[in-house]
Amino acid sequence: MDKYADQISQVVNDLYGQTIDAELTRPEPRFGDYATNVAMRLAKPLNRRPRDIAEEIKARLDASGVFNEVSIAGPGFINLRVSAKSLGGDLNEAFDGELPFGNNNDGAGKTVVLDFPSTNMAKPFSVGHLRSANQGWAASNLMRDTGWTVITDNHLGDYGAPFGIWVVGFQKFSSEEKLAERGIYELGDIYIKTKAAIKQEQTEGKHELEDEAQQWLLKLEAGDPEAVEYSERFNKISLDHIHKVMERLHIKTDYELGEKFFAEPGKKAAHKLVEQGLARQNDDGSIIVTLDEYGIKTPILILKSNGAALYATTDLGTLLYRHDHFHADRVIYAVAAEQKFYFEQLFAMARKIGLNMELIHMWFGLIDQINEDGTREKMSSRKGVVLLEDLLNEAEKRARANAKSDDISDEDVKKIAIGAIKFTDFAADRRTGMLFDWRTMFNLTGFSGPYVQYAAVRVNKILHDNPNVGEIAPDYDYEAEKEVILKLLDYPNVVKQAADNLEPHRIATYVYELAKEMNRYYENTPVATADVPAGIKAARLHLLRQVAYVFQHALDILGIQIPSRM
RNA sequence: GCGCCCGUAGCUCAGCUGGAUUAGAGUGUCUGGCUUCGAACCAGAAGGUCGCAGGUUCGAGUCCUGCCGGGCGUACCA
């Protein structure tokens, strides 16, 4: 609690004239409710023994009468105990603040653009895009709750080679019937099959298919009606699929400005940088930006030798657009770790050309899969990726099978399935590689989404059955509720930490711990049974409302919905 | 070769930015608990020389150095 930390800082200032930012930690319950290490931190500057300093601080804190108990332990920790009742008062105060409980205003007046899930339109949604979707979505919610103006943009991979490959492959390997029947899955297969065929061709020294695909690209750029018709049809199929899957994930973005949108502006910008002397055109026509002054030896290539755009070209155009049109103060890219070096280059280039934005690559570890022999391996399209819709279907099947009764609605089953999958994504630090295992992917028990949902559902049920809180007994001591109250008081700081570090897993860890505390409480303390006196029942219901609020708030950040029953 | 990331219980992972003689969860194994608000729950047992070796200091899983092992990246793919 800031209140207590500030008080300690003030005491230190009074006693020693030292400005110190006292931080409170939560020690093991046997030591106290809160603890501070300021005495140890002051030992060196004051050249005194930490325990002596702690004694002096303790004397002041005792005199203040705020704490039930102040004790000194170990090398000089100061442990504090506060009465459950006054902690409950602190919690009410925090809930009565101007901002919703848990929110802060760190980003007030600033705009952030979030780039996710940056779907590749050539193939159906696979689990490969799941992390970007989840992490990006959670990050956008964290930014929103910390006062930022948030713009989300799905940077579609809709430019270049895939189109030509689609058309060639469609004519060679597919048919209208198949396309009508299988949609994006047919297009994805066509794409993979045709790329393999092109590769095969190359080993034989031929390039007929490749040339043909290239021809279609040129036709499209020239506005050839047949090419345009293909393009519009294929893109619609792909986009409809993307929308459908994202809707199932309960995730959406404000914009879908794809690579195609930024290709021409990007090319123009590349040439302009050459004129400005910021970029260099090689003899073969390609354009690079050197980054030696930023400690990066490999220059970034922003235009191909044949004058065509590549990744960096469209990203350059995108950066300029987000700067000029969105007036972004910050841009966050939720993209896998593989591209770390590329983003270092891109961000260095942005600085070099004078773009004054905070650029963050919110990277995450790769998804591994487990082989039959127990070894781990990176998931690759070569080995066969898991399609997201298959994953969702399987998760729903398992959630349904686990449901207590048959009258749980489909809506609720979906929320449970999605909750399980998403929570798994947030179970570990995003940088940790994720193991995709059909056996553990949709955990329904323990450290899992459904565990938290279950605790929330139980709380909501009690609140639903007891809509009126009533008059709270003024002398109620809240001892039974103390651990839950302490946990709730931690929440705003957890949100801040998660937002500052873009670490949504802190929210998942926290909400799990809250659920655990709540389940424990639920087990031991009746809230609204017949034998609970009205005044105490009111006190407990009031607290449960606060618990329910935090469950809702935290799960909302993670993009997890609470079912009505489960 | 160089750069970045990682190595914690059988397995999957946390570890509050250096803190407290028992390093935490889940899962798996074993034991107990549904006549009171929902057992997708709760209580308990067992399981670790935190990759190895040094160093920094009151104090290291956390910071530094060197090894060993793994992953990713290293300009015309995205």
Features:
9% strand; 54% helix; 13 strands; alpha/beta; RNA-binding; globular; 19 helices; four-stranded parallel beta sheet; three-stranded antiparallel beta sheet; 566 residues
| Tally of contiguous helical segments | 19
CA gyration radius, whole angstroms: 29 Å
Strand content: 5-15%
Let me know the number of strands.
13
Kindly report the average pLDDT value. Answer: 92
Biggest sheet statistics: 4 strands, parallel
- Computed structural class: alpha/beta
Anisotropy-based shape: globular
Give the proportion of residues in helices. 40-55%
Low-pLDDT residue spans? none
Enumerate the strands of the largest sheet in spatial order, edge to edge or round the barrel: 5-4-9-10
Head-to-tail CA distance between termini: 35 Å
Give the SSE layout.
Blueprint: H1 2-16, E1 34-36, H2 38-46, H3 50-64, E2 69-73, E3 77-81, H4 84-95, E4 111-115, H5 130-145, E5 149-153, H6 162-173, H7 176-182, H8 184-203, H9 208-222, H10 225-249, H11 259-275, E6 280-281, E7 287-289, E8 300-303, H12 311-324, E9 330-333, H13 340-352, E10 358-361, E11 367-370, E12 376-378, H14 388-402, H15 410-426, E13 434-436, H16 449-465, H17 482-501, H18 505-524, H19 534-558
Parallel strand pairs: 4-5, 4-9, 9-10, 11-13
Antiparallel strand pairs: 1-3, 2-3, 6-7, 7-8, 11-12
Helix pairs in contact: 1-3, 2-3, 4-17, 5-17, 6-8, 6-9, 7-8, 9-10, 11-12, 14-15, 16-18, 16-19, 17-18, 17-19, 18-19
The chain binds one RNA strand of 78 nucleotides through helix 2, strand 8, helix 13, helix 16 and helix 17.
